[in-house]
UniProtKB/TrEMBL annotation:
Domain of life according to the entry: Bacteria
Keywords, ordered alphabetically: Aminotransferase, Pyridoxal phosphate, Transferase
Cofactor entry: pyridoxal 5'-phosphate
Keyword Transferase appears in the UniProt entry: yes
Gene source species: Rhizobium vallis
Protein name (Swiss-Prot/TrEMBL): Aspartate aminotransferase family protein
The UniProt record lists the keyword Transferase: yes
GO molecular function: pyridoxal phosphate binding; transaminase activity
Similarity field: Belongs to the class-III pyridoxal-phosphate-dependent aminotransferase family.
Pfam families, sorted: Aminotran_3
InterPro entries associated with the record: Aminotrans_3 (IPR005814), Aminotrans_3_PPA_site (IPR049704), PyrdxlP-dep_Trfase (IPR015424), PyrdxlP-dep_Trfase_major (IPR015421), PyrdxlP-dep_Trfase_small (IPR015422)
Length: 450
């Protein structure tokens, strides 16, 4: 390996990183992660810390999952690539589609469209939603409704439904015909209440109001994350998603569940939709589907949508969309091995149990650290929102958030920052001891940041 200065300087010189300012790379260089094992990562200086980020909410089984690594190696030997565009397919992909149909049967989803990641999956959902209405004889249904604080990736469609200015402003104008409702965010919202059920009802009223204003017959779909992730972890009240489902049904609007983070156990249930007892029309997945070891994703499709396309014999039903890597055999083999391991280890149950311990630990920290304004979480997706004043809720400055992250790292745990939020999303295989390590490191970080 080259020496540290070479790596840092050339990283700054030649790499533009996602979600980072290229001009900051030398003054504030990224940590260079060299290796990983179990739930730990090791940097080029030899420091090993628990990965409280879980890669990027995707390495749910940790870094030493041999069956997935072997499946990738074996598939590279057998068939390293072939296209799944019309005319060809491959055995691991077919087997995966069979397993996914069983996995998501309870969610009412039986067909899969494969992608190379989360943004691709969201884009696919948006396109299929519009096309469904064309197939169904309602071509004027083209608009989308989404939530503020929602995150749906970075393609133009996804960016257009994103509910955070940071991911929109520099890329405007985005897709027209997208409307945003308030986020289910008790700590900050326009409704003058912190009651999650009241907030759910208020957003549902906003939705009805927007539908009346736009005209139901112009709206293709409503998209939401069952638990909002990158926007700062917002856990809606249990009534929220069912309410939105009912409104969609009443007006012929499709419900897209963006489960790029929540599918495969992170919330403590095997899907976020299942957590809330809702059956979506389209579900975007990616990330944990291959445990982060291979870029891959799947859009799961409900029978209603599938029937409309499959019974349509003209060009409107033909899918003019897809990626070179839609149905990559190595990704499919990785996903098959991942599904098997997730089930064997019952990681959803562990995420639920460890998540409760983690949330309790974070709530205890809030009692001792004034810097914490709010604590939120479901399963192993949790956040601390940092404020300088609990009464005014003024956001903590960037340098305090950075100090916390650095001190937590020194104390042995990597966490992620997003604005004034600290996001904690470790692998789902962590133990109770690991939970204590995370809480202790955050404790040290909060002391350093105060
Ligand atoms: N949708 C959600 C809910 C996400 O959290 C993300 C990424 O974090 C995406 C879409 C985009 O996924 P990707 O970064 O793999 O393109």
């Amino acid at each position: 390996m080259r020496e540290t200065n070479f790596l840092t300087e050339n990283n700054a010189r030649h790499i533009w990183h996602p979600m980072a300012h290229p001009a900051e790379m030398l003054a504030n260089p990224p940590r260079i992660v060299k290796s990983a094992s179990g739930v730990d990562i090791t940097d080029i200086h030899g420091k090993t810390v628990l990965d409280g980020v879980g890669g990027l909410w995707n390495v749910n089984l940790g870094y030493s999952c041999e069956p997935i690594k072997k499946a990738i190696r074996d598939q590279l030997d057998e068939l390293p690539y072939y296209s799944a565009f019309r005319g060809t397919t491959n055995p691991p992909l077919i087997e995966l589609s069979y397993e996914l149909a069983a996995w998501f049967k309870e969610d009412g989803l039986s067909r899969a469209f494969f992608t190379s990641g989360g943004s691709d999956s969201v884009e696919t959902c948006l396109r299929l939603a519009r096309q469904y209405h064309k197939v169904n004889g309602q071509p004027e249904r083209t608009k989308f409704v989404a939530l503020k604080k929602g995150y749906h990736g970075t393609h133009f469609g996804g960016a257009s439904v994103n509910g955070n200015a940071n991911f929109r402003r520099n890329y405007e104008p985005l897709m027209p015909g997208v409307f945003h409702l308030a986020a289910p965010y008790p700590y900050r919202n326009p409704f003058g209440t912190e009651d999650p059920a009241e907030i759910a009802a208020a957003i549902a009223r906003q939705f009805e109001d927007e539908i009346a204003f736009q005209g139901a017959d112009t709206i293709a779909a409503f998209i939401m994350e069952p638990v909002l992730g990158a926007g700062g972890i917002m856990v809606p009240h249990e009534t929220f998603m069912p309410l939105m489902r009912a409104i969609c049904d009443k007006h012929g609007i499709l419900l897209i569940a963006d489960e790029v983070i929540t599918a495969f156990g992170r919330t403590g249930a095997w899907s976020g939709s299942r957590l809330w007892g809702v059956k979506p029309d389209l579900m975007s997945t990616a990330k944990a589907i291959t445990n982060g070891y291979y870029p891959f994703g799947a859009v799961m499709i409900a029978d209603k949508i599938a029937d409309a396309f499959e019974s349509n014999k003209n060009a409107t039903g033909s899918i003019g969309h897809g990626y070179t890597y839609s149905g990559h055999p190595v990704g499919a083999a990785a996903a098959l091995a991942t599904l098997k391991e997730m089930k064997r280890l019952d990681v959803a149950a562990n995420a639920g149990a460890r998540g409760e311990e983690l949330l309790a630990g974070l709530q205890a920290l809030r009692k001792r650290h004034e810097l914490i304004g709010d604590v939120r979480g479901k399963g192993l997706m949790c956040a601390l929102e940092l404020v300088t004043d609990r009464v005014t809720k003024a956001a903590a400055p960037k340098d305090a958030v950075q100090r916390l992250q650095d001190a937590a790292y020194e104390a042995g745990v990597m966490v992620r920052t997003s604005g004034s939020n600290i996001i904690i999303s470790p692998p789902l295989v962590i133990t109770a001891t690991d939970v204590n390590r995370i809480v202790a490191a955050l404790d040290a970080g909060l002391t350093a940041a105060a």
